[in-house]
Amino acid sequence: MAELEDGDYEAYEQDIKLLVDTLRKCFNADKARFSVVGHLNTLFIEIEGLDELSAEEISEVAEPVLDELDMDFDEISLLPLKN
Description:
Layout: H1 6-26, E1 32-37, E2 42-47, H2 55-67, E3 75-80
Parallel strand pairs: 2-3
Antiparallel strand pairs: 1-2
C-alpha cells in the first residue's frame, strides 16, 4: 500500500468509522470498536451482542453491507465486543 498523506489517512479512518457505525446500527448495538492490523491487512470490528447470534445470522445481516465496500482489506472479521 502506498504511503498515505494526512488527508488520505483521515478519509481512510472516516470510512472505517462509517463502516463500523453502519454495522453497529444493523445489529442494533450500542457499542462497537475497531482495530486494524496493518501487517496482516486485516480489519477487526467488535460489536456488542454478536455473541448472542449464530454465524449464519451475523452473515445475513453483515453481508449486504460488506458487499458494498470499496476498501482494500484482505480480511474483515466481526467479533463480539469484549470489555
